[in-house]
Amino acid sequence: MRETHHLLNNVVATKTEHHQHCNPHLKTHHQPFPHHTWKKMGSKSVTLTFEDVAKHNQKKDCWIIVNKKVYDVTPFLDDHPGGDEALLSATGKDATLDFEDVGHSDSATEMMEQYFVGEVDTATLPAEARNNQPPPIQTTTLSNESSGFLFKFLQYLVPLLILGSAFALQYYGKKSKTNES
């Protein structure tokens, strides 16, 4: 437990130094959670409960959840192109769909990594927050791909066969009339 709390203090201290370096006007910063709300996952990542993340919902302390990851976007509020309200309205829920609906650039997604705090324990997400996650990407099987190819092939082949038959009938029809004369 002591090791987890030590990890938390290192993460918060590092993030505080980073936030103050990026935004010198940021004078206050959030206090770390009690050590019992954090779970150690590895050497650098922590798992947070949804309830703990949802507490960070103010302009001076703003955390959001995107793709099961928690980000402290407090220092970015004033710089966000959509304004601070866009980020503040994304607190207290899984903001994955909101984030993806806007169509953020790859550089915006990469920039988020500097605000990474940890991961959210998905078991603690409320039902409505779980429903806000994008549906899993469905993979197509080989049989679906081959039947799709066959359908497209037939879609073009049938009209060509009809057209070819019409020309053949017209050609042979004229040829048989000239032979009769």
UniProtKB/TrEMBL annotation:
GO cellular component, one term: endoplasmic reticulum membrane
Locations listed in the record: Endoplasmic reticulum membrane
Topological relation to the membrane, as annotated: Single-pass membrane protein
Residue stretches spanning the membrane: 153-172
Gene3D superfamilies membership: Cytochrome b5-like heme/steroid binding domain
Iron is among the record's keywords: yes
Pfam families for this protein: Cyt-b5 (PF00173)
Keyword tags: Electron transport, Endoplasmic reticulum, Heme, Iron, Membrane, Metal-binding, Transmembrane, Transmembrane helix, Transport
Source organism superkingdom: Eukaryota
GO molecular function per UniProt: heme binding; metal ion binding
Broad class of the protein's primary localization: endoplasmic reticulum
SMART domains: Cyt-b5 (SM01117)
Coiled coil: none
Domain Cytochrome b5 heme-binding: 45-121
Family affiliation: Belongs to the cytochrome b5 family.
Protein name from the UniProt record: Cytochrome b5 heme-binding domain-containing protein
UniProt source species: Vicia faba (Broad bean)
